[in-house]
Every structure is written in C-alpha cells, then in structure tokens.
C-alpha cells in the first residue's frame, strides 16, 4: 500500500514547517503550497526528502486558487490548510485581513470538493482568537472551552488591525463549518485552535531578522538591556510541536473528525519568560530582572480555560512553557 499523500497549504509557515517535517518523518508524501518558488526551494533544501514537493499558489484569496494544484495531484487524500494572513502592517482591514482569510478558506474547501473528491479529511488551522472574548467583550470569570466563539462583530473587526486579526480567525473558521454544513462534501473537517505558539523553528535559523510573529515575543525579550522595562504582556501558550502533532492526529484519529481542537498548555507572561531565560541562560547579562514575582500575578489574570475534551481526544500531555522557551532561546543563540 502506497503512503498517504497530504497537501499542506502555506507550507513555509512556522507551524506548517513543523507539520511537514513530522509528516515526512512519518513516511507521508507531502505536497506543500507556497507563495513563490524561492520559498519552495528553501523548504526543499531544508526537508531534503524525495517525499516532499511544492506547488506555487501566489494568492489563496483568488477564486480557484488551489484548483490546478489539486488537479495535478490526484494522489492527495488529506488537505491541511494552514495558510492565512497574520500581519498588522496593513492599511485596509477588510481587504487585507478579513476577506483573504475567509475567501482563502472557502477557496480551499471548494477546490477540494470540486477537484479532489478522494480527499477524506480537511484540517484547518484556526486560533484561540476564534474562541476567546477580547477587549470590550472580556469577562475575567469566563472559562473558555472548545464550544466558545469570539463574540466580535464584523463592524468591530474593522476598528484596528488587532481586532481585524481576531475577526479574521473567527469568520474564516465559521466559513469552514458553514461550508461543510451547507455543501455536505465527502471530507470530514477538523479545526486546530492554538493561542500564542512558542517553541523552536522546524529548521535551524539562518537569518535572525526573519522570525515569525510569535517567536518575535521571545526574540524581543532577548534584545532587552538590563535597564529595560519588561512588557506587561500575558496570554495563553502552546508549543509549536504539539500544534503540529495535533494537525496530524486530526486526520489520523477518527475521534477528532468534526471537532475543534483547542490547544492551550498554560498561561504565560513576558516576566515569566524573562524568569526562565535568566534561570537557564546565566551567560546572558543583558536580560533585566524586572519584578519576578509579578509572573504569578499576570498569569492569574490571563484567560481561564478548560480544554479537557481536546486532551481526551488527542491523549496527549502538552509541553510546558519552560521547555518551549529553553528550546527557542537555545536555537536563537545558535543562529548566525
């Protein structure tokens, strides 16, 4: 029996590279979509396996974006859709964030239904942004679960890029579930909903200046000086390796079909990350002390959650923050 072929959209993303690497390690055939041949060639060099190839899909928001790629690869039976805009340097929220996220998701599902009827499972990377309640909707007593949806409205999403991102994740995921409900395609849908994703890159860092948005949180703290004020940032986190593994369980494990997998390990704060760095990398003399005790304060003020249904489905123990940060920092320090 030949190995299963998996299509991974946005294959050069932070999470997607881990997914691709893991799939190759598990002997799957992988076809990844990237926006340019340069990105594709970089991946080919990093992965170094005859089981990986790429196709160029310059704009996932264009109707029929994945048609040709799927027509060319009738062997694909699983579609993992990780591609989505995640940028705050934008001028038109609706045009550059909301519409591309929604249309990108719908285009992927339409292409699969039309040109890849053999596909049995579609996995979509969503976000805690589609689950949580933020800004004016915040409720400190709320315990978030897989059943929750961000209450943000379309109008509120247009206020600023941050709200635009929150809206884009909610509306794109809703579009996916609505599509399955209305169109009743052959495939089963599963979404993966992580908060902040920390952990090392899938491959050694060649250029420190090009770090993904989540890793930049850690990178920025490494650049502080002893007198710097530590940001008061705090949120929930999960390690990228757990997120990648969940994407694969999403189609390997029949119990995951039709579910939202809410991947969150624990709360984190910038002060807490600094505490971990100072404890484990004593050679870094530039890291400020801050107020170490405030980590507990920030973490207790972070979103409360119960993702026991996801943990039960996946039967996993998620990596702790210490492991994630130590591995990230180690990799950054080893980079040229």
TrEMBL record:
<comment type="similarity">
    <text>Belongs to the NAD(P)-dependent epimerase/dehydratase family. Dihydroflavonol-4-reductase subfamily.</text>
</comment>
<feature type="domain" description="NAD-dependent epimerase/dehydratase">
    <location>
        <begin position="6"/>
        <end position="258"/>
    </location>
</feature>
<protein>
    <recommendedName>
        <fullName>NAD-dependent epimerase/dehydratase domain-containing protein</fullName>
    </recommendedName>
</protein>
<dbReference type="InterPro" id="IPR001509">
    <property type="entry name" value="Epimerase_deHydtase"/>
</dbReference>
<dbReference type="InterPro" id="IPR050425">
    <property type="entry name" value="NAD(P)_dehydrat-like"/>
</dbReference>
<keyword id="KW-0560">Oxidoreductase</keyword>
<dbReference type="InterPro" id="IPR036291">
    <property type="entry name" value="NAD(P)-bd_dom_sf"/>
</dbReference>
<dbReference type="Pfam" id="PF01370">
    <property type="entry name" value="Epimerase"/>
</dbReference>
<dbReference type="GO" id="GO:0016616">
    <property type="term" value="F:oxidoreductase activity, acting on the CH-OH group of donors, NAD or NADP as acceptor"/>
</dbReference>
């Amino acid at each position: 029996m030949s190995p299963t072929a998996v299509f991974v959209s946005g294959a050069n993303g932070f999470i997607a590279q881990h997914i691709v690497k893991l799939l190759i390690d598990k002997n799957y055939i992988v076809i990844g979509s990237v926006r340019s041949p340069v990105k594709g060639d970089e991946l080919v060099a990093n992965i170094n396996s005859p089981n990986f190839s790429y196709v160029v899909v310059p704009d996932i928001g264009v109707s029929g974006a994945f048609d040709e790629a799927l027509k060319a690869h009738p062997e694909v039976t699983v579609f993992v859709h990780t591609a989505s805009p995640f940028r705050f340097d934008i001028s038109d929220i609706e045009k550059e964030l909301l519409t591309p996220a929604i249309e990108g998701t719908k285009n992927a599902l339409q292409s699969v239904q039309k040109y890849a009827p053999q596909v049995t499972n579609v996995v979509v990377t969503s976000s805690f942004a589609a689950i949580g309640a933020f800004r004016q909707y915040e409720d400190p007593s709320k315990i978030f679960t897989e059943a929750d949806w961000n209450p943000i409205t379309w109008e509120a999403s247009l206020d600023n890029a941050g709200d635009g991102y929150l809206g884009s994740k909610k509306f794109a995921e809703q579009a996916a579930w609505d599509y399955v409900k209305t169109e009743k395609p052959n495939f089963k849908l599963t979404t993966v909903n992580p908060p902040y994703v920390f952990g090392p890159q899938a491959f050694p860092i060649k250029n420190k200046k090009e770090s993904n948005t989540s890793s930049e949180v850690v990178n920025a703290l490494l650049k502080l000086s002893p007198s710097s004020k530590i940001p008061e940032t705090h949120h929930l986190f999960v390690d990228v390796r757990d997120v990648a593994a969940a994407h694969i369980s999403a189609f390997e494990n029949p119990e995951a079909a039709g579910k939202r997998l809410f991947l969150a390990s624990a709360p984190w704060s910038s002060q807490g990350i600094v505490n971990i760095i100072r404890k484990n990398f004593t050679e870094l003399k530039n890291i400020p002390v801050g107020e170490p005790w405030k980590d507990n304060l920030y973490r207790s003020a972070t979103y409360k959650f119960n993702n026991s249904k996801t943990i039960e489905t996946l039967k996993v123990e998620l990596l702790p923050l210490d492991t994630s940060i130590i591995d990230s920092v180690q990799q950054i320090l080893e980079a040229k």
